[in-house]
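FW: tagging you since you asked about this chain on Friday. Here's the raw sequence from the shared folder, copied in full. Didn't touch anything.
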Amino acid sequence: MSTTSGIPFKRKQTRKNTLEFHIMVWIPLLFLLIFNYGPMFGIVIAFKNYKPGLGIFGSPWVGLQYFQRIFLMDDTMRALRNTLIIALMKVIANLAFPVCFALLLNEVRVRTYKRVVQTITYLPYFLSWVVLSGILIDLLSPDGGMVNQFLGFLRIEPIYFLGDKNVFRKTLMVTDVWKNFGYNTIVYLAALTGVDPTLYEAAAVDGAGRWKQTIHITLPGIATFVALMTILGIGQILNAGFDQVFNLYNVSVYETGDIIDTLVYRLGIQQQQYSFSTAVGLFKSIVSLILISLSNFLANRYAGYRVF
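HL: got it, structure written out here
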């Protein structure tokens, strides 16, 4: 009898003790509902000829008219193609460079030097693209930029990194790697700590050098983690980096640098084509959802990891 009567009291006491934790969860959840899920109602604009004076409910219904226009408009297909190309370049580069750098840094035995290098490479990650874009514009300027001055000493003509459509994509990739590879390196360094050190000792006894140990022990030891990070990157394939592109691109590189997010910005904010820009954004979200679901399936099947 006493045990039964004590159960409600224990439950009440547990709820009282965890009240603070529930409040901590509900506050960010409330912000998420207001600022992320609440605006989702606005996707109905994609199916209407939205007029700000008439409002969402008063604007006439046009169905899939703007979605048909997506596949007929050259700018949309160009932006989609650029988004895929730029995103793929970034995914591959942000995999190869951090892995190689992590392997090299893992061989350093002087801890002080190793930490200094980690800190220096990690610092750009904390700077926003607004700040970095100003720095890059000065560094890459064809008129007195430090990079082009160095190329001048090598008898190389100035390169318009931010004005040449043939160079702009590569510039985006290199600058994105420069900003993020310090963070990605730390992630892969953490994965390297999971490799069994006795395997290196056994390989050394068998006469294997550092290169063979890297090929046959280190890389297979982190292969699952590398595969997981690559697969998860599929879900972000349509996010080519709005902040970076928006702060660095200009009209002369639209042909190779204009992505879906910058197109939506120009259509919606600058040209006030609210319905069409919403349709383009919704189209991107649907494709992204498919890719995220696919990446979750692949991550679960080949890496044994579930995102959701």
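FW: The longest helix spans residues 74-106.
HL: agreed, and The mean pLDDT is 84.
FW: great, closing this out.
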